[in-house]
Amino acid sequence: MQPVVNPKYPGLAIRVADEGFAAYVWGSDFSFEVSAYAEAERGMPVADWPLRRIVPYRKCYGIDPEEFSSYRNAADSEIFMAYLDDQPVGHVVVSTNWNGYGHIDELAVHAPARRHGVAKGLLEVAQFWSRKKQLPGVMLETQNNNLGACRLYERCGYVVGGVDHLRYRGIDPNTSEVAIFWYRLFADEPQA
Questions:
Q1: Residue 114: partners with Cβ closer than 8 Å, 6 or more residues away
Q2: Backbone angles phi and psi of 24, in degrees to 5
Q3: pLDDT in the model for residue 11
Q4: Hey, which bits of 46-155 come out as E strands?
Q5: Going from the N-terminus, what domains does the chain have, and what CATH number goes with each?
Q6: 135 pLDDT above the threshold of 60
Q7: What is the pTM of this model?
Q8: DSSP 8-state code for residue 101
Q9: What's the rounded mean pLDDT across residues 51-73?
Q10: How many CB atoms lie within 10 A of CB 181?
C-alpha cells in the first residue's frame, strides 16, 4: 500500500507497519487526561452527554506490540502506522470482526502529535481497508472517560451503537468506566 498523505497536514503519512512498530510503541506516550465520566446515550450528541466531573488524572492503557504481532500482513487484519515528518506518531490495528464489520482493535496517537490529523487519518485508512474488504462498516470501542476520542468518532461520522455498563466490572467492581461501542455504517452514506 502506498503511503496515504493528508493534504491538510502535508507532513502526515500513513503506511503498513514495519519492523519499527515495537520500538515506536515502547517509546510513545499514549496517555490522556481524564477529568469527567460521561453518561453516554445513543442518539444524543456527545456535547449534550451529562458529565460527572472528577479530580483530573492521567490514564494510559498498557499497549503491548506483541499482542497484535499476528495481525501484520494477514488476510483479515492489518496494522498501519502514522508518521509526522517521518517520525512514527500513531497506529491503528484493524481486523474483520466476527459480526462482519471492520473492527478497530486499537487506535493510539503519541501525545505530542495530537491535533495534527493523525487519528482522523488513521480512521480513514481503517475505513478504506474495510471498504476494500467489502465490509458493511467499521466498529470500535472506547470508554466514557475518553471524551476526546468520543468527540473525534462523532466528528468522523460514527454513531453510538451500544453502551455496556458492566464490561469493566470484572476488573474493578467499583469502576465508573463504561464501554461505548461506535459504528460507522457504510450503507448509511451517500454513494460517490
A1: none
A2: -60, -45
A3: 86
A4: 51-59, 77-84, 87-96, 102-109, 137-143
A5: 4-188 (3.40.630.30)
A6: yes
A7: 0.91
A8: S
A9: 89
A10: 18
Give the count of beta carbons closer than 10 Å to the beta carbon of residue 75. Answer: 7
Amino acid identity, position 63: I
Q: Which amino acid is at 166?
A: L
Strand 137-143 to strand 102-109: parallel, antiparallel, or no bridges (unpaired)? parallel
DSSP 40: -
Alpha carbons 30 and 64: distance in angstroms, whole number? 12
Query: How far is it, in rounded angstroms, from Cα 84 to Cα 88?
Result: 7
N-terminal to C-terminal alpha carbon distance within the chain: 22
Q: Is the dihedral of CA 167, 123, 126, 134 positive or negative?
A: positive
169: Cα separation from own chain's centroid: 22
CB-CB neighbours of 12 under 10 Å: 24
- How far apart are alpha carbons 171 and 174 in whole angstroms? 9
